[in-house]
Amino acid sequence: MDVYKIQGGNRLKGKITVSGAKNSAVALIPASILADSSVTIGGIPEISDAWTLKALLEEIGGEVTFENGKMTIDPSKMVAMPLPNGNVKKLRASYYMMGAMLGRFKQAVIGMPGGCFLGPRPIDQHIKGFEALGAKVTNEHGAIYLRADELIGAKIYLDVASVGATINIMLAAVRAKGKTTIENAAKEPEIIDVATLLTNMGANIKGAGTSVIRIEGVDELKGTKHTIIPDRIEAATFMIMAAAIGDGVLVDNVIPLHMEAVTAKLREMGVTVEENEESIYISKQKNLQAVDVKTLVYPGFPTDVQQPLSVLMTQAEGTSMITDTIYSARFKHIDELRRMSAKARVEGNTAIIQGPASLEGSTVTATDLRAGAALVLAGLIAKGETEIHDIYHIERGYSSLIEKLCAIGANIRKESIVIKTKNNA
Ligand SMILES: CC(=O)N[C@H]1[C@@H](OP(=O)(O)OP(=O)(O)OC[C@H]2O[C@@H](n3ccc(=O)[nH]c3=O)[C@H](O)[C@@H]2O)O[C@H](CO)[C@@H](O)[C@@H]1O
Ligand SMILES: C=C(OP(=O)(O)O)C(=O)O
């Protein structure tokens, strides 16, 4: 089993470069299914989710290359192959195969998606959208079956402003007949990125990034080239690391506007954040102060940053509270942080964190992707050695994390270890 081993206590200094956005990449790659010729996407992060999606596109007949961050997808020979099991279970975003295959083939069979366990993650709004467009949707033996004679544009009001549902409905609606309106749409930057790719393919989409998206369906979509936006969650993770143990860190390849909620909270904690055009500089910090945070849909504070920020809170003076209104059970990392001597507890959907705490290295488990990023930070801060298990979660979403952190001074390495069980002891 692969683990990360971290010797804590090193300071971070220098430039760290953010990769393309995971949560864009995982939607842009399936979006290519809708084109009639090759789509090239630059800046795809080297994460396992991207490799798994490449494999899924190949399973349905796509010809895909992925080298140096550039993925080229030739969708011309794709067929509506059912994908009930296997790779679809390895990631959450396999659900975008539903919208894209429905848009192109008017049918799809996709197993229930995997991804991080964060508490219940329903997809009822995705299904409601597909049904409004005229698809018949059934759940048989854990797979979703979608079939439509034709897709017809409709007015769809989302009960919750879901990123996944907004993108998935967009993917199907660009090939529906007539007009679709998505009301109470999510406004995350990744939605604009997907709309930009689709528009360059020939789709007619207005209002992406606002709460009302209007789509006029088209008969065909063509191949194109696209460059992905920077990953605002990875950028936030590095900003938080820099605030905790940096001696001057430049986080490069950032859109500062996407970081506003994070930047504002860090400033409230006493962190000096200098914004440049495409980078953010965090100098050496002292006297961090406790704050209260509530996660919200964009442009609010992102749930994906809740877990890394809770580690910074262990280093701040006083009692911080962080409430997750998007995923109420996204707190498994708190138990792991307690193993490292953090003074923290969970009450309902809120973590209450007492700082400053002297963290101690320990053996911990990355229960999910951002929990893993939080534990990497905790290990970098802690005295002694931290060993992180189940790092495959981290590698679903962070590209070259070890190389990037070592280049600015961290002592972290990946190792294969043998876990002793009754059978091999
Ligand atoms: C692949 C991807 O981009 N994943 C992101 C996406 O996940 P995901 O697409 O799962 O999140 P959504 O934005 O869809 O969900 C937001 C909220 O809506 C609820 N909901 C969602 C869909 C639905 O049909 N019904 C429903 O009730 C969810 O339970 C959650 O409380 O947004 C999350 C919230 O920003 C991020 O943590 C994930 O990183
Ligand atoms: C929860 C996340 O990912 P996913 O939706 O792919 O599980 C995340 O990116 O933090």
TrEMBL record:
GO terms for biological process: cell division; cell wall organization; peptidoglycan biosynthetic process; regulation of cell shape; UDP-N-acetylgalactosamine biosynthetic process. One of its GO terms (molecular function) is UDP-N-acetylglucosamine 1-carboxyvinyltransferase activity. Phosphoenolpyruvate binds at K22, N23. It is found in: Cytoplasm. InterPro entries: Enolpyruvate_Tfrase_dom, Enolpyruvate_Tfrase_sf, MurA_subfamily, RNA3'P_cycl/enolpyr_Trfase_a/b, UDP_GlcNAc_COvinyl_MurA. Residues 6-405 form the Enolpyruvate transferase domain. It holds the Pfam family EPSP_synthase. The active site is at C116. UDP-N-acetyl-alpha-D-glucosamine binds at R92, R121, P122, I123, D124, Q125, D304, I326. It catalyses: phosphoenolpyruvate + UDP-N-acetyl-alpha-D-glucosamine = UDP-N-acetyl-3-O-(1-carboxyvinyl)-alpha-D-glucosamine + phosphate. Its main location: cytoplasm. Pathway: Cell wall biogenesis; peptidoglycan biosynthesis. It is an enzyme of class 2 (transferase). One of its GO terms (cellular component) is cytoplasm. The modification 2-(S-cysteinyl)pyruvic acid O-phosphothioketal is found at C116. Keywords: Cell cycle, Cell division, Cell shape, Cell wall biogenesis/degradation, Cytoplasm, Peptidoglycan synthesis, Pyruvate, Transferase. Its EC number is 2.5.1.7. Cell wall formation. Adds enolpyruvyl to UDP-N-acetylglucosamine. NCBIfam families: murA, PRK09369.1, PRK12830.1. Belongs to the EPSP synthase family. MurA subfamily. This is UDP-N-acetylglucosamine 1-carboxyvinyltransferase. It comes from Solibacillus isronensis B3W22. The gene is murAB.
